[in-house]
TrEMBL record:
Keywords: Membrane, Transmembrane, Transmembrane helix. It comes from the Bacteria. It comes from Winogradskya consettensis. This is Uncharacterized protein. The chain crosses the membrane at residues 17-36.
Length: 43
């Protein structure tokens, strides 16, 4: 990430960024598990 310094100086709330990232990962994992269950005939 070359523009980390630019982001850091523009007043980005990193706790919010990490929260959004974690939410995205959790959502992706949920969808992945759901897709795997569907693939193996689960409901």
């Amino acid at each position: 990430m070359p523009n980390t310094a630019v982001l850091a100086t523009s007043g980005v709330d990193w706790s919010q960024v990490h929260a959004v990232k974690l939410l995205g990962v959790a959502l992706g994992a949920l969808i992945l598990f759901w897709a795997i269950k569907r693939m193996f005939g689960g409901k």
